[in-house]
């Protein structure tokens, strides 16, 4: 039997969410973010790409701006008003020093105590192969959280911010090695609205109207195992401490 999940820490003020694509946070994590912003915490989004290769029927030069706008709308639904993009190429993100440096600079600029990313392991649920972009961004984010605190790694140039050793945790959403969770039972409607904002993406993948499809997906990705978190709807995280 797996161990019960612990509540996520609440003694923090600022979080930075780092993911590969628009919509990555809306598949489950947005419910937790909605609860945090409702409690007065500051949350910022950092997207490594604009998701321009994510819709087969729309060319990248059109899809990128469309998905950026939808991501900003999705973030606003859960109380997030700062959304930044790094402009790495969708689908071919490379783990390496360039990505680590970009993420470390962003962490130094936003000075979060909590950094959130999504599953960087090879599989989802132990069976479905994970995207190379997710793996590259998740692993680089975990490394960059440490890089950001070391002034001798990626020394600042020009007006770049100084080192920020204040990251206390990286929380990996939907990890197969989950240890903690957030109660999202009160955030269902906001989570649905956030995912439904990705209208063009949902219309490409599904036959149902976006709002109806978003409701089904949010309910499907909200875990409720009574043995793990008391039967409440929750989002799980692997919590890495620094």
TrEMBL record:
It comes from the Bacteria. InterPro entries: GlcNAc_PI_deacetylase-related, LmbE-like_dom_sf. The keyword Transferase does not apply. The keyword Zinc applies. Signal peptide: none annotated. Keywords: Zinc. This is PIG-L family deacetylase. It comes from Pseudonocardia eucalypti.
